[in-house]
Every structure is written in C-alpha cells, then in structure tokens.
Fold these 2 entries.
Entry 1:
Amino acid sequence: MSWIKRRETKTVWVGKVPIGSSHPIAVQSMTSTFTEDVPTTVAQIKELEKVGCEIVRVAVPSIDAARALRKIKEKVNIPLIADIHFDYKLALLSIEEGADCIRINPGNIGELWKVKEIVNLAGQKGISIRIGVNSGSLPKELLKKYGYPVPKALAEAALNYMKLFEDWGFTNMKFSLKGSDVKTTVIANELFAESSPYPLHIGITEAGTLLSGAVKSAVGIGILLYKGIGDTLRVSLTANPKEEVKVAYKILKALNLRERGVEVISCPTCGRCLVNVEELAKEVEERLEHIKKPLKVAVMGCAVNGPGEAKFADVGIAGAGGYFILFVKGKVIGKLSQEEALDRLVEEVEKLAGEEVGGV
Ligand code: SF4
C-alpha cells in the first residue's frame, strides 16, 4: 500500500491500458527509430515490452510513418500513441491507421478548425488524445499576457484547451505540461491539477543523458508523484529507450507506487574487494531485465558486509577470497567460482520468479 494519496481523476484509455487515479501509474517510452522502418521499430518496441513498457509513442513526421502504424500495431502487444506536430492531416491519417491515442500540441497545429477535425475523428473512433503544452509553443496571447512561459501561462493554456475540447463534446483526454526546467514543470502541473479532473502524463522534457537525465527526472517526477500528481509517465533520456523504462520503474519503486522486476543491490567496493563487483552487477542486471516479479538480488564484494546483505536478499552472492558464496532466501547454497557464479545466480532468480530465460 502506498503512503501517497493520488489526486482523483477521470479514467482515460490508451488502447487496453487505463490511465487515471484508480489505476497503476502507466510506464511509457518513445521509440528512437524511423517509424516507417517497420521491422526496426517493431524490434525496438518488443525490447521495450520486455523491460515493462506499457504504452509506446512513435514519431509521425510523414505520411509513410502514419501508414506504418497499422503494420506495427499488428506485431506488438502494447498500445501505440502517434506523436504529431504541425500537420493535422498526419493526425487524421494516424487515427485512420489505428493509433490508440494521438499526442498533439494544439499550439503548433495552427487554425482551430484543424484541431477540431482531429478531435471529431478521435471522437468517432473512440480513441483518446494527449494534449501536450510546452514552453516552446504557447499561444501568442498567453505569451503576451505573461511575457514569458511561466507556470501560470502553461496551466492556463492547458485549461483553455480543456474547456475548448469539452465545448466540442470531447472528454477522452489527458494532459502534459512541460516547462524547460523542473520548477516550471512542477508548478504548472500543480496549478493545472487544482482545476482539472483529467489524468496527467508527467515527465521532464529533454532531461539529458542517462545519469543527468535520470537524476533530473527522478527529482521532477518524484516531486509530482509525492504530491499525488501523475497518472502515466515517461522519463526522457538521450539513451536507449529501454533505460527510460528502467528508470521509470526505479522512480515508482522508490515511492512505493509500483514494483516490477529485480532490484540489484551491490556494494560500492573497497580495498577488501578481490572480485569485479561493478562488472558482475551490471551483467546480473542485464541478464535479469526480463524478470517481472519483484525480487531482491545482492552482489557483494567480500565477507565483511557481503554475506549479511546477501542473506537478506532473495538471491545473493558475496565474494570470499577467490570464490563466491551463494545464498538463496538467506540460506547458503554453496561456494562457486567466479565463472559459475553469474549463471548460477541467474538460474536461481529465474527459478524463484518462475519465468523462463528470455521470457517476457
Ligand atoms: S562488502 Fe566488502 S568489498 Fe564491498 S564495500 Fe563492503 S567491505 Fe568493501
């Protein structure tokens, strides 16, 4: 049970995945492939599915990309969101081609009648729309009013779109408000959340490379989640999108909001360490990334703290001179050579998880 009380929202569906306060916070990512390259895009989505991605967004910058959506959808198991900028016709085509949700920023679509056409078709097909409001594309009148993309301007833009869409009879929507920094994003989302019943997609835009992006995202997303805000999230990283999904689960887990997969506990190593813990811990993480069941695995360098930590994990290994001691559920299973240790540890974790090697 989480210690965080989530803001109450409506439920909106992206394909088979419900988004809203009565459902788990859904983890999203975005492909980095050319969408029209169907085999490569499908392969990347499959990899994302394997690490727990629940919804995937793909860029649709061309007619070819929009036409690829149907073929991609046939081959993957998670819902697809079409990411549209500027061209309303690409949004219409994406809806026709089976997108489960359309992500638009009405501020860069142009005249309102174009936005309305998208809304009408989404309504007819029963799919949801994510309305994205960004610092970079605020309506001119709001920029004039506030002089700068301050949080109030972002929240006001999103609330205006909300009213407009409701006036058009459309309520199947969720929102994202992204400023260029953590503070703007957090305050904008808080302001919007006070006045809207719709779910929020949260994230820190252009957060950076793996380490800096993960830290910035953990801080920004973490603050919002702690305040009960956020129904689906994407961690944006300049890295393999699989890393986005892994970081997302780590953030959710740190707040007891969701649990998935193996948590590897490893020691920082010190002058007592005679084995390569860093390499081993990385290999363990990679080889166990397909496991869904929440399990604790310890990789410890030596006998000082090693056996203690390893004992409290579901499966653990601790270096002891030239060999490793293997623990399962606190019991010593045996002494292993470095070569044997990794395979044996993976085998024991898979046994506990009840999952096959390479399973999803
Ligand atoms: S477990 Fe051993 S090797 Fe690792 S930090 Fe502690 S004392 Fe050093």
Entry 2:
Amino acid sequence: MFEYAAPIIREAEVFVITAGAGMGVDSGLPDFRGDKGFWNAYPAYSRLGLSFSDCANPQHFADDPSFGWGFYGHRTNLYRKTVPHAGFHIIKKWIERQGADYFVVTSNVDGQFQKAGYADDRILEVHGSINRLQCQKPCSSSIWQNDEVVLVDENTMRARHPLPRCQDCGEVSRPNILMFGDWSWLPDRIHIQEHAFDKFLKANANRHIAVIEMGAGSAIPTIRATSERIGWNFENATVIRINPREPEIKAPHISMPCGALEGLLKIDELL
Ligand SMILES: NC(=O)c1ccc[n+]([C@@H]2O[C@H](COP(=O)([O-])OP(=O)(O)OC[C@H]3O[C@@H](n4cnc5c(N)ncnc54)[C@H](O)[C@@H]3O)[C@@H](O)[C@H]2O)c1
Ligand SMILES: [Zn+2]
C-alpha cells in the first residue's frame, strides 16, 4: 500500500489534507472513540457517568459555567501545550518541495495545523476552533481570540473563577466550537473558510490532487465524506485514507491501516 501511495504523492500538484481526531493521537492527544475512549481520557466524567456529547453541550455555559469551562478550559490548556508530531512537517515538506498548493479540512478544534506552520487562510475547521471565543447568548456576532488563562481542577473538572466573559455584554463566553444540540454557535468564521475552500477546489479541479485523510472516524462522518466527495468527483484526485481501525475505501483510492505518523514516515522513505 505504501508503494501505491508514493507515486500519488510524487505526482501531486495539489494536496488536500483531511483530518479527524486520530491525527492528534501521535502527538499524544486522545480521540474520543466511544465512551471508553472518552472516559480513559477523562476519569472524572467516567465517575459522573457523562459521555462526550453530555459534556460538549452549550447549555452548561448558561446553567453551570464552571462545569462548561472545566471541559473546554482543560482542552484549551492541553492543546496549547501539545507539540504537533513529525507527520505534520512531513506533509508540509512534500508541499514545499513540489511547489504544490494545499488546503486542510479538519474536524479538530485543537489548532495543531496552524501550530505546525500551515497558513490560517488555507484551513477549514468544520467544527470551529478552541482558539476562538464567542458570547454564549450570543449578544452579537463577534468572534475573538482565546487568550484566556483558565485553571481547572482535574478531580472535579470544574474551572476556577473568574471565568472568560463576553467583551460586549459581560455574560460568560464560550469557545466558538459547534457542540451537540447547539443553536447559538456562530458559523460566520467557518462560512468564510468554506467559501475559500470551494474557490480553491474550483481553481484546482483539473490538476492532480492527493487527498491525505488521517484519523477521521465514521461516527461523525463529515471528514470522510469530504475526502470521498473529492475522490469521486474530481477526475485526477486520489484519496489516501490512513486509519488503523477503519481504513476502508474503494479502489482506486488507497487504504492504509496504520497510524498517521507511521504511514507518513513509510511513504516518505519511498519518495
Ligand atoms: N483534537 C481535537 O480537536 C479533537 C479530539 C477529539 C475529538 N474531537 C472532536 O470529536 C469528534 C470526533 O470525531 P472524529 O472522527 O474526529 O474522531 P473519533 O474519535 O470518532 O475517531 C478517531 C479516528 O482516528 C483513528 N485513529 C486512532 N489512532 C490513530 C492514529 N494514531 N493515526 C490515525 N488515525 C488514528 C481511529 O481509528 C478513528 O477512526 C470530531 O467532531 C472532533 O471535532 C476533536
Ligand atoms: Zn455578549
């Protein structure tokens, strides 16, 4: 499989990098696969019997903001201290060496592609970003940088006061992340990113496109569907799906049942 992927990379004029939570695993981040995966990462929620979707709920910011900010403050701190693994840099090296154009589409909210040096205007974060905040009401359409320092007690997963607040109305703020049952999420930033991605695809429709998909699960299939849409609709596009547990994709697309870093290193050796 690595030998099938190498020529696709070598001939690529354009890279579309699609990534789910599994992309962060080799940087030491948890994916939230099933309740077990989530509870391993967050024993406090296991004790409370709360699932990922129970915690990723905007209602907490209104009802019990210290609890809401417990989960997202902890993740803010975790993603800030995480160093993107070498795989991020391997793909960037290919892009630069080939003078290729690229776009990243990710369901991750962790800002790791920006941290690894990918340009902010070449990234679509379909579920938003932990590095941006908005008002929980929201009182306006403002979205601003998350420069907050949030202290979280890991035993209770509650954040200490003072909590981040809206600059306009003083209400508790929240990350500009699409949560479950979320009617107050402001999608404006994502709409701008989506528009840029559509324009990018139109401009590159006839070129050789390598779609490198890593760590995208099938439970919330947005990222897998994006890869497949490009793979089936663009004549010169090939999807390389790297995923240790659910790598299936129909030929001529390429399935690599391994971790993201391992797969990228192996392809790199063959280039
Ligand atoms: N870092 C983050 O921002 C983060 C982390 C966890 C969850 N989330 C959110 O939770 C939702 C979960 O969906 P999802 O599909 O992204 O995650 P998921 O947890 O459902 O699936 C993770 C996928 O990664 C694969 N995987 C595990 N280890 C891997 C590795 N080393 N290399 C490559 N792949 C590996 C698994 O087989 C699985 O298919 C998403 O909406 C996402 O926004 C975000
Ligand atoms: Zn407000």
